[in-house]
Design a protein that fits this description.
By secondary structure, this protein is mostly helical. The chain is built from five helices and no strands. It has two domains: 89 residues, no CATH class; 54 residues. The chain starts with a helix and ends with a helix.
Length: 143
């Protein structure tokens, strides 16, 4: 149950953050806003680490395979693409498409067992759910 609530909170925070970041972009530029977002995220994470964890930061570099360290770089492009999609589509449409893309890619990762994720069998109910979600977006967009 806690995982469910955390996931809901994550989605809500991502939507609010996207709107905030899009507004910050209006006062500067997409890359300046993205840099500020990443810098403030670093500050919050570092502060939380100081207050709670204090594990050896250098252990991060022991991760295998090394390409897993690209998460932060991917995060910069996530910030950029969220800002641009919200700017052009509006928050609701952008978030719907972002969530469907996340769901599709996450399911493919599970099906193929990519990136060290345990491979899962194809389940038709999940495919039907995905199709219904896409139909929902079409209905939402329909004028």
């Amino acid at each position: 149950m806690i995982g469910f609530l955390i996931a809901l909170l994550s989605g809500a925070l991502m939507s609010v953050q996207g709107v905030f970041n899009t507004q910050v972009t209006k006062a500067s530029s997409v890359w300046a806003a993205s840099a500020f977002v990443q810098l403030t995220a670093l500050g919050v994470c570092f502060g939380a680490w100081l207050l709670t964890d204090r594990s050896n930061l250098m252990q991060i570099f022991e991760v295998q395979p090394k390409y897993m360290l690209l998460g932060g770089a991917i995060g910069a492009f996530i910030t950029y693409t969220v800002i641009k999609s919200m700017e052009t589509l509006g928050p609701a449409k952008a978030v719907m498409l972002i969530v469907v893309a996340q769901l599709l890619v996450a399911y493919v990762i599970e099906l193929l067992g990519w990136f060290g994720v345990e491979k899962q069998p194809l389940e038709w109910r999940k495919v039907v759910g995905m199709v219904l979600t896409i139909i929902g977006i079409i209905i939402f967009k329909w004028k």
